[in-house]
Amino acid sequence: MGRKKHNWKARNIAEVEIDNSATKKIPIDIKYREDNYDNCNALVLPNEKRRTKSKVKKVTTTRLLSKKRRKQLEKVVEKKKKKLRRTELLEELGKVQAPQEELKQYVSLTSVQTKGLKRHFREMELPVKEHMIKSNNENEDNMSEVPVNAIKGSKKRRMAILKEQKVQDAVSDPNVIGFDEPSNSESESNSEDNEDREEKDAAETSEDNENIPSKEDNILENNITKSTVGEQEKSIENQTTISKELLKPQQPIERTPATFVVLERKPEIQAARLKLPVVAEEQAIIEAINENPVVIITGETGSGKTTQVPQFLYEAGYAQEKVIGITEPRRVAAISMSKRVAEEMNLTEEEVSYLIRFEGNVTSETKVKFMTDGVLLKEIQSDFLLTKYSIIILDEAHERSVYTDILIGLLSRIVPLRNKRKNPLKLVIMSATLRVEEFVENSKLFKTKPPVLTVESRQFPVTIHFNKRTSINYVSDALKKAIKIHTRLPDGGILIFLTGQREVNYVVCKLRRAFSMKNKKEIANKMKEPQKTNDSSKKEDDIKNNSDNEDKSDNSDHDTDDDFRCKEAIRYNKLRQKKKVQLPNINLDDYSVIPTDDTHEDLIGAEDDEEIQLDEDEDEDDDVIDLKACADAQPLWVLPLYSLLQSDKQARVFEPPPEGHRLCVVSTNVAETSLTIPNIKYVVDCGRCKTRMYDKVTGVSTYRICYTSKASANQRAGRAGRTGPGHCYRLYSSAVFNDQFEQFSQSEIQRKPVDDLLLQMKVMNIDKVVNFPFPTPPDTVQLQIAEKRLMILGALQQQTSGKEGSYSAKVTPLGRSIAAFPVAPRYGKMLSLSHQYDLLQYTVCMVAALSVQEVLMEAFNMDNDSRNKWLQMRRFWAGTGNSLLLGDPMVLIRAVGSAEYAGTKGRLLPFCDEHGLRHKAIVEIRKLRQQLTNEINLNIEDLNLTINPQMKPPADIEAKLLRQIVLAGMADQVARKVMPDEVNEDQDKAKWKYAYKTTDMEDPVFIHSSCVLRKICPEWVVYQEIYETNKMYMRGVTSIEPEWLPKFAPSLCQLGEPLTDPPPRYDPETGKVMCSMAGTFGRAGWKLPVMDVEYPLSVDGVKWFACFLLEGKVCPKLKQFVPSLLSTPQSINKTWAKLIPRTQEMTQLLLSRGIMSRGQLLEAWKVDKNFLLSAYQKWLPESAHGHVMLIWPPV
Prior knowledge:
The chain is α/β, with parallel strands linked by helices. Among the domains are: 267-454, P-loop containing nucleotide triphosphate hydrolases (Rossmann fold, 3-Layer(aba) Sandwich), CATH 3.40.50; 462-517 and 627-740, Rossmann fold (3-Layer(aba) Sandwich); 754-799 and 808-813; 821-983 and 998-1040, no CATH class; 1098-1194, no CATH class. 44% of the residues lie in helices and 12% in strands. The protein contains 47 helices and 28 strands. Helix 35 (840-851) crosses helix 40. The radius of gyration is 49 Å and the shape is extended. It starts with 7 loop residues before the first helix and ends with a helix. It comes from Bombus bifarius. One of its GO terms (biological process) is maturation of SSU-rRNA from tricistronic rRNA transcript (SSU-rRNA, 5.8S rRNA, LSU-rRNA).
């Protein structure tokens, strides 16, 4: 305690309690201050000072125990614990102790010794009666005696229980030491004095407590009695409830027995299956699927999800009554997975089948069905509830393709619908990455969060090697790295990731040249120095034998890129130095910091000079490859892999390489997730991918080579760790990886036009697509532009001015017929219109060819003769006149027709090679033609459309109609040539020489040199698409006439008033009033020439039709009455005609029914024969009225 400060009493702010009892006794008549929340403004004031009482808060200070005292008390507690244990032990012994009656029958040795044997036997031989009397007397004595308790310390035990209860109540008190608290400084060496003193104290307290019946004893007894009574009551209640339950009629519980379908697998396949990580999770996966409608399974590629989960479900009985459906985003994966699963399950391809866009082997016996996600989407349109499926598995959901996103949204609604109908459908979403937040956290998608099961991947450690610098020429770097791996590192497959087909073919070509089969030079060297080779081979064998027994771990520094971190590699390198073979002189530190911005892509070739730069043949080869050093290396089995490659060539990567060869696969990102290539140990990752950048507003497609995402880079690296420890060589620095790589790639739905998606969903009666539960919704700009394009095509109804931003436009009948075809909406419109003029065979051929990418190959690596031959052939196919103006579509029609004819002769492959056609594309076009033909035959009765191999080229008039059909489908993709007088003086006139302008872009676009219309350069064209390389180029160009635009693109034309000079005229063929009009097209306001169009519905138009009717041009029978008319027919168009009743009556009648053509007038007369009779009679004198009545209607 410190010293008290000066005036502490006054400074102490104490609470004062005022005695206000006197004022409270005074009665007050009025209601005043009933709430009484403070004492201000009191009505009654006291006449004398009131008593006060200061409130003093009593602060109880609890002193903490000292260490010494704490130890003492701990010892006391420990001793009491021991005594308590002793009483418990005695009580347990008492339970097994023999009873007193039994003990009395035993004879002790001491009593026999004192009595003697004679007396003992005499007592034994006493009469029974006497013995009975004695025993009765003894029993009476025993009953009168108080029984002695053999177990001591029962009182102490009761006291200990009470103390334990007190201890539990006062746990928070720091002065109390609990029984359960262990003491760290516990020692057995206690002094005897302390023990005796403590025991005496305990004994005295116990004696006092025995004499006085304490309150605590009563509490304990009450508690015991209460508890026993409570237990009895509970037991009685339980008995009554059990009896009631037994009396109730028991409801039958539905018990579904666990089904298991036995599969007879081959032993080697079963052994391989057991090594997959997903097999260990089989029970957890099946239980989760059985208990939840939606399950998400994540696991790295190679864990066995795709192949094993369908087998788990088949064995669990999901395929007994219905089909197990598995969707894949790629056709290659669907085919290969179905074959693999069929082989593992030891079932036929009839039971485990696949169905992709153009082919499939699905039968009525199919139990497991692999398909692309587009196929399942088409099935939903015909069978919304997917009644033939018991479970749907969406595989590779991390790729986030457009169809996968739509399927997830649709199935999130189909699954609850099926559950309501007691016909449950299960949904399993499988993803290779852990990016599942968009599925799990999206409450709009799934109301209850689906469980997420993570499968550990069968992943061996992969060592990542970064470059010091990031080079621009990653193709050359990949080539160098592959050569170094092959010449210096131990056996193991190599997988090289590049961006596109051209790069893949370039690297494959170089590696095949460098590491071909043993060549003549090597044989000649061996002949010259046989002794050296023998010695060196012996050394090589010894070193290899030693190296095989050593550990192949990699523990060296990560900073140096040239050090390959392997003992075998170092020894192998020394051996090569002894053999005096020069290694390639490669400086991997020579890099540029600037990242790449190349713009080449698979399907669209860049300019010729760019191609030559990459292929500047031998000089570059000598810099990259030392052919002399590569001659002694092991042969390399180099295979390409990309999506446009033929299926049989793609399948070669799964086959083992020839004996003595190392496998090397040069691939695009196809091998990233979809396919698992066996025996890959080394991965070379360029870190880039080719992405189609799509401008949402202008529709320009640009293929850009940009950095891939971190998730994709990790997927690529994981390919090296499937069969054993591997290495991934990244051709970029760690700084670029951390700073410039995105975490995940953007979903496809956000970087693609959504026209087809929007139309398909509108056909499925999803009017407000903006409210659809997408995992990642598309941008509103995308939806806006797509809706606008579909309105231009006539697939959606034009919205009123108030509802433009509501995204709720309805589908037109034309839109429904467009959606029936499995092609883009613009091509669907072409097919819908072509039936009118019997052009279906040409339109089907043209649409199929336009839908498939890269039909005509670019002659980059060809010599000039071959290139000129191809171009000449294409110009010949284009023809002349309207056929030439049809442009690129005409070339495709002729090329596909010629290839079809060559196919019937068995010369399809040589024909394709000879004329620069891609064989896989031609095969795909034929499948699409067959599919479209079947679709048209189903929809149009009595039309036997077939694929005719001897289809003749379209005639000139047919080519003109095809041009109009192309315009109808491409109405929003019109371009106009820039005239020389339109180019400003400050602009470069050479740049704008062959330039065109589109409606949505300010930059000029050009016709590519490979286009057949390049030399003609027509003024008005339509194009299939615009792509960007070094310039903006149009692809699929067709020439059009501007006069056609108001008819085929009316919503984009702004026409002026009908011209009076020349005046309107009546067309007897169509029966319509025609007029001359001028106008503009598009937002740019391009001037259209003066053209003849149908007179729009208006008062003036009706007057002109009435004028021609009075003149007898509409109905020739009325010509006889023209001389008798009261006024000339032309007077109906005069300004003063309103004053004449007969002109007003005729005009009003025609306008009320909107009649402005002969056909409409005839329809009106079918309904009412006397229509216009009275109005016409007013133009004639009364003498002619009867004659007109006889011939009316004048048809």
